């Protein structure tokens, strides 16, 4: 978690530990896929409510900024509205300062001149044959990255973290788009942006399938787009979300729209990329059912 967000938790630590409905907050954090089964089990094993509260706050402060957002959502769902409001007021002041700082940073990192290229191998080419075309910052060290791996060019939206020395390195929090999937996302992005602007008017969750196991979702409880990889367990009827994904607020989504245009300068192949659903082999239902992009969890049944 960013140091400033840790300070917000510490500032309200005593009040949160003594007043929050920790059992409901833990339940909702578990439902949001922030807490794993193991983490929830460790919290449930604590006998006293105050000890559970303190251990949960330790977990929150040890994670990234996304944990702070998830924590506030869980407080709201648990009915701790006043606590959530206090955190929100502090975070608004912090977000305003951070957004101003982000706007002052260059959007595109020039990999030919930047020292960041050393994090990905000499001359942006690593030993496993991966090479990087560009890094475009869309806010708070979340980057749109075009990268070739084993001969396949993909676009990533990925969260990076900084070392104490100020060097950037990629985390596992992110989404991968092959070029046809990225082309579909570009087509859907205006609808997603319009929906986010009016999120408070939504009567139900809005969902877009971006290809493969990747979905973008918006609900009326919080102004964010959750883009995430899903998978389907053998005993499940519906696919479930994984930890691989990113959450974009309005500021990041606006920057993402600009990044989509700038990325074309570094990856001209994007102009020729076509979503698979527009191919000749998808002109009938059978073609779509056999496609791992269009029917990622059932296509093997029809092959």
TrEMBL record:
Origin: domain of life: Eukaryota
Annotated CDD domains: CARD (cd01671)
Keywords: DNA-binding, Nucleus, Transcription, Transcription regulation
Segments for region (Disordered): 114-133
One of the record's GO cellular component terms: nucleus
Subcellular location(s) of the protein: Nucleus
Pfam families for this protein: CARD, PC4
Keyword Zinc on entry: no
Annotated Polar residues bias: 121-133
GO MF annotation list: DNA binding; transcription coactivator activity
InterPro entries attached to this UniProt entry: CARD, DEATH-like_dom_sf, PC4_C, ssDNA-bd_transcriptional_reg, Sub1/Tcp4-like
Positions of the CARD domain: 1-90
One Gene Ontology biological process: regulation of apoptotic process
PANTHER family in UniProt: RNA POLYMERASE II TRANSCRIPTIONAL COACTIVATOR (PTHR13215)
Entry similarity comment: Belongs to the transcriptional coactivator PC4 family.
Protein name: CARD domain-containing protein
């Amino acid at each position: 978690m960013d140091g400033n967000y840790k300070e917000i938790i510490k500032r309200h630590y005593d009040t949160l530990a003594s007043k929050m409905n920790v059992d409901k907050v833990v339940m909702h954090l578990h439902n949001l896929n922030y807490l794993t089964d193991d983490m929830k089990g460790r919290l449930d094993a604590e006998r006293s409510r105050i000890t559970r509260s303190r251990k949960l706050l330790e977990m929150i402060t040890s994670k990234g900024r996304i944990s702070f957002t998830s924590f506030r959502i869980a407080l709201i769902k648990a009915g701790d509205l006043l606590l959530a409001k206090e955190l929100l007021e502090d975070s608004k002041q912090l977000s305003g300062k951070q957004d101003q700082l982000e706007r002052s940073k260059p959007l595109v990192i020039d990999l030919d001149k930047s020292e960041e290229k050393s994090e990905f191998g000499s001359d942006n080419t690593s030993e496993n044959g991966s090479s990087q075309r560009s890094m475009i910052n869309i806010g708070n060290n979340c980057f749109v990255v075009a990268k070739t791996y084993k001969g396949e060019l993909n676009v990533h939206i990925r969260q990076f973290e900084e070392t104490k020395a100020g060097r950037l390195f990629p985390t596992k929090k992110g989404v991968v788009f092959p070029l046809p999937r990225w082309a579909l996302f570009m087509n859907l992005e205006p609808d997603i942006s319009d929906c986010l602007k009016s999120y408070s008017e939504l009567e139900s969750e809005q969902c877009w399938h971006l290809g493969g196991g990747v979905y973008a979702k918006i609900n009326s409880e919080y102004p964010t787009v959750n883009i995430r990889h899903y998978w389907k367990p053998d005993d499940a009827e519906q696919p479930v979300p994984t930890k691989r994904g990113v959450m974009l607020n309005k500021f990041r989504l606006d920057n993402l729209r600009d990044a989509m245009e700038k990325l074309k300068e570094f990856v001209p192949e994007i102009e020729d990329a076509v979503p698979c659903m527009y191919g000749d082999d998808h002109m009938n239902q059978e073609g779509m059912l056999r496609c791992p992009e269009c029917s990622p969890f059932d296509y093997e049944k029809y092959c």
